[in-house]
Design goal:
This protein has about 240 residues and is an alpha+beta fold. Helices cover about 25% and strands about 10% of the residues. A hairpin with a 2-residue loop joins strand 3 and strand 4. It contains five helices and five strands. The protein has a domain of about 100 residues: Fusion Protein Consisting Of Minor Coat Protein, Glycine Rich Linker, Tola, And A His Tag, Chain: A, Domain 2 (2-Layer Sandwich).
Length: about 240
């Protein structure tokens, strides 16, 4: 059986040329499709929006402010001036002199008595002229101020040792330390203005109790006048 195909026929001879032509034709059609535009036939353009026409409109002018009319001129002065005689008598007012006359007697003013106002002054224990006297130190008064100061300090230490009691709660907690005490010997010899500063409130409370038991003293004097005398001392609390 013989084949029907012609062996001399070559179908792929011009295939590349046909492919290039077809590709160019397709690209042309796509380009024309993208560039295609359609415009609506509409001639309804509003000619009233022209700027030139808007400028031709009449603008109303600002009304003028009406000013009031000028005041009428003053009346003219008369040509002749009539002289009128002044027959009315005017009483002159008399101003009385308020200053004293030389003939008046000036009363004598009594001499002004200046009253001395006592000012409370605190004089430290170390510099006061007459130191406060602790009860029992009267016998050393003749020996001078130094002997009185030494006796005062000795009596103060004895008083503290006599009334000293270590707070139980401070002992249980192991609290110890020094309490600084400051008080004032008043002008009547009493003790006041007690202040404490220490490491614990219980120790401060005990120090205040000891100072509160101090007896009334003979007040200190400065220039012969009783004054307040501040005094400071430490009270040491130490566990054995």
């Amino acid at each position: 059986m013989e084949p029907k195909k012609n062996p001399q026929a070559d179908l792929t001879k011009n295939s590349s040329l046909y492919f290039a032509i077809g590709l160019a034709l397709v690209m042309f059609i796509v380009w024309r499709a993208l560039e295609y535009k359609k415009y609506d036939e509409d001639n309804t353009y509003d000619i009233t929006q022209n700027v030139d026409d808007m400028l031709d409109e009449e603008v109303p002018m600002t009304e003028q402010i009406k000013t009031p009319p000028p005041p009428p001129p003053p009346p003219a002065a008369p040509e002749e001036i009539a002289v009128v005689e002044d027959d009315v008598e005017v009483e002159e007012s008399v101003i009385q002199d308020t200053e004293s006359d030389e003939e008046e007697e000036v009363m004598d003013v009594e001499d002004v008595v200046e009253e001395e106002v006592e000012v409370d002054v605190d004089v430290p224990f170390s510099v006061i002229e007459d130191v406060p006297i602790f009860p029992g130190c009267e016998k050393v008064k003749k020996k001078g101020a130094k002997a009185l100061r030494d006796c005062f300090n000795e009596k103060m230490n004895k008083h503290i040792r006599k009334h000293f009691q270590y707070p139980e709660i401070a002992q249980e907690m192991g609290i110890q330390g020094r309490v600084s005490v400051r008080f004032v010997i008043q002008k009547d010899g009493s003790i006041g203005q007690v202040q404490m500063r220490g490491p614990d409130k219980n120790l401060e409370k005990e120090a205040a109790r000891i100072i509160g038991k101090l007896p009334k003293m003979t007040p200190g004097k400065q220039r012969g006048r009783a004054v307040r005398v501040p005094f400071s001392l430490p009270i040491t609390f130490r566990l054995q």
